[in-house]
Amino acid sequence: MKPLIETENLTYTYPNGPAALAGVNLRIEAGSKTAIVGPNGAGKSTLLLMFNGMLRPDSGEIRFSGRPIAYDNRSLRDLRRRVGFVFQNPDVQIIAPTVEADVAFGPLNLGLPPDAVRKAVRDALGYVGLQGYEKRPPHHLSGGEKKRVAIAGILAMEPDVLVFDEPTNTLDPASAEEVMELLDELATSGRTVLISTHDVELAYRWADSVILMERGRILARGPPGEVFSDSRLLAAARLKPPALLDLYNELGLRGIIDPDAPPKSVLEFTDRIERMIHGRAVTGALTGRVYLCDVERVCGDELRGFIESGAVEHVGAMGTRAKEFAGHERIYPDYTYGVIDRCILKALIGENSLIITSGGMVEHVKKRIGEYSAESGQTIAVIPLGRGKGHPGATGGEIPS
Ligand code: ADP
Questions:
Q1: Is 321 within the bounds of a domain?
Q2: Ligand 1 pocket, CB under 6 A
Q3: What does pTM read for this prediction?
């Protein structure tokens, strides 16, 4: 497959500054979730700024969709529409006096007619869960909300690639989780998402490909489990391994587990330990169910009634649209991140959960749980909730194992 973005021997030195990039070669595949990981000063931001032409390399070449980036105004405008850049600090990005005006800025600049601008703003604010914020002054919003305004401003231009410089750096843990979930949603909808971070935990659980940087060079690239298992490389980059991987590697070194492939999640790891203890996966145990609610198909009263009936012990909300729906309907989710895995973990101990979500994430949940059932041999029923005949589960059918 041809990479979407490719760089060859990029170098860059700031005026009166150090060599920020010292020969960078990389490839970013279309549809991938890539994290550029390195300590402060490694050159991550400098590299990202090259991808939409905000910085121009001193030497080397960047290719987008196979063609070298050109730096005339027209080419740059086109590139910046296709490669959206979200700055670390949203205050740098937000320029207009209201949320609506800020998000409209990009589409207006693209010369879209007023109706199309209005639609782009409405869709983008809906996507990040900020409907109703149109007239609010951005500088009165919380850090997490500002970040979402900045993301909406980029989404309104419908880019193919989204580049996030340190997306969670200034956010509290809950806002950081919301932003990472939004990034997951964007990737699920087929966009290429690229982030820079010094947070190895975040990169390990989120990315499908990691590029390790230090002193303007790429030290390693590959799947997170592989790159973060190399302690020598991590030490060279002044980073520590992710806790889950560290534990897995230590247990492997002591001969307690058989190291084959590093676990990506707590679910995967506990499954493997269980298989090891019992010599196999414990199948046949009564698994709990996962009810699946698409917010477009179920009304709040029905859903609240369903939860209050005690049919489920746990409730998770995936995606900004679902969280907003839950908030509006006074439904308080137990899980707002890593929802699918957590509900699978609960199903494995016989407890029922409800996942509230929307759009493409509905199929994603079914697929993920279906795959888990097939791989583990433990069938977990996914029951879509639907409108009609009395209660929300009435039109649902179980996914066959
Ligand atoms: P990271 O994003 O990994 O923290 P940066 O790309 O911001 O790294 O920085 C790479 C190097 O370039 C660092 O040594 C930093 O001090 C330097 N640098 C970054 N921005 C500037 C600037 N505007 N002027 C001069 N030096 C800079």
A1: yes
A2: 14, 17-18, 20, 38, 40-46, 196
A3: 0.82
